[in-house]
Hints:
Layout: H1 3-18, H2 27-43, H3 48-55, H4 61-71, H5 76-89, E1 98-107, E2 118-121, E3 128-141, E4 146-155, H6 165-180, E5 185-188, H7 195-203, E6 208-211, E7 217-220, E8 223-226, H8 227-233, E9 238-241, E10 244-255, E11 258-269, E12 276-281, H9 287-303, H10 305-312, H11 324-345, H12 348-358, H13 373-383, H14 393-410, H15 419-427
Parallel strand pairs: 1-5, 5-6
Antiparallel strand pairs: 1-3, 2-3, 3-4, 6-12, 7-8, 9-10, 10-11, 11-12
Helix pairs in contact: 1-11, 2-3, 2-11, 3-4, 5-11, 12-13
Amino acid sequence: MIITESREKVKRKAFSLINKLDKMATVPIKKFILEMSFGIIMTGSSNVNLIASKLKEHSAVKHTIKRLQRMLLRSRVLGFANKLSLLESIKKIDLDTVIALDGGDISHQYGKKFEKSAVVKDGSSGRFRMGYWLNQISGYNPKSGETFPVLLDIYSTLEKGFKSANVETFKIADKLVEKIGSIGLWVLDRGYDSGRILSYFLDNNLNFVVRMKTNRDIIYEGKKINIFDAAKKINRRTRYNTVSRFGTSKIKLELNKSTYELTLICYKDKRNKKPIIFLTNGWIKSTKELKRRIRSYFYRWGVEESYRFEKQGFGIEKSKTRNYERIKTLLGLTIISWLILIKVNEQPKLKEAVLKEAKMEKDKPKNRPKFIYYRLHRGIQNLFEGVKKLFSFRSRKKEKEKLKKYFLKNLPVFKKLPVDHLWIQVVA
């Protein structure tokens, strides 16, 4: 495939994706989203200064920066991005889809004047720094091996109206549950083993598996007992693979004066000294289904790559923007940037052309990682490298204005014609 043709196809994919916002966003907003999304992909950063220089407009870079900064105050872009992501992702969610709910953070090591910045725990370093909390829902299809974003939200504990982290979690989960109901398997890590979270999933009849901490009490064989002590009593007779085995037990859990029946899974392999404890809804007897739920939790570790990709691929933490509304908008734009990569990934011929431009040493399909978006990102960067202009819809308007002034000044005949008629002649 010719390079120019590949560029146009990538652009068309981006156009068609953003045009789905037709009834939600105005034309200037859609143009802004298109410019910023490509700018984020091209620079690998959410830094507005770098993006402005990459757009290569006729006007001075400082004017482009001012325009982009002004448009970034449209915080509704995050809402548009989530609606678009939800629209695309619900087509891919079925009964076997792993839905991973995870919390994250945006932290700035040396930033002290970011608006509404609060203390967060940096996931990469484990240290407490100033920043913002994130909630993300990602999906994974075991059959195709595709990871895709579903919803992403940001909040600050200093934000007006903030109540608790659980309330923020319920907000983002409600948006997806409202669309898909009880389809898919929710996979949660140890941070989501609280009573309120478990009650939410049980009351909404959602299928889930959560890794538990060791400080919760359950009802085991009619007696109240610590969950870890109960797990040690389970006979791990079922073989999971060559290095691990697991066992299950029917238990009960009391939450908010209600009693629920659940399945306690005790999993142990040779690599871990202590067993891993899972809790899943209902009483499950099928060994096949139990293995699927354990396997889904381990798939979740791959889904966590989503956060790393957003930080490394799109450089959300490299942004120097200190305004909270602008940070929200940038976060929404990173989602749309990822959706553009997904659209490219869905077209086999275009995908191969872009991957070829990535110029990786090990480029055979068998050597490619499952998380393909780093390579697609690099491929699009190389594909558009050296292009004089990413988009011409702004410069074209200026050129038309210059042409119209030229005709009015140098050809007196056109002065007698209405401006609209003149414009038609000029365009023709």
